[in-house]
Amino acid sequence: MTRLVLSLVLSAGLVLPAHAREATSVRCPSTDSIRREILDQLRAIRAQARYCGRILFGPAKPLRWNQKLFLAAKIHAEEMSRRDYLSHRGLDGRRAGDRIVRTGYDWEVYGENIAQGQLTVSEAMRSWLDSPSHCSAIMEPDFEDVGVACASTGGGGSPYWAMVLAAPMTQARR
């Protein structure tokens, strides 16, 4: 039996920094930069106990970068940017779990964080950590893999971010 741990969203009005609203076109960091920075930050964040709202999470093991989860995040970030909307549901009705399956990742549990307007990995991470539900996804000990993408192909150039976290289906559950 598969389960969905979290499906989270930050509204654009809450996470769009003032300097991003003024920009007409903003470039996302490179994929290599995002991968390097996100893994470094996640390793440091998950290495320590952390409160996400009122819930205390103990330290969690480091996450691994997963190219399939990156592809699921990239597909969604690009669609949100191109169509200028912020939602976990794609315009085709699909959710993160559907996008993950389409990449060939056989998940047991997954979560997704999305955001709009942050210019750097650090800004996106800070926004997610400031939200109890997004922070909980980051600290969820069941997650093993992560992929993060940023796209700014439309929507006035405002960056759209998607973080997909998951754990693969175990042999016992197949």
From TrEMBL:
The lineage of its organism: Bacteria, Pseudomonadati, Pseudomonadota, Gammaproteobacteria, Methylococcales. InterPro entries: CAP_dom, CAP_sf. Residues 1-20 form the signal peptide. Residues 60-162 form the SCP domain. The keyword Signal applies. Pfam families: CAP. This is SCP domain-containing protein. CDD domains: CAP_bacterial (cd05379). Coiled coil: none annotated.
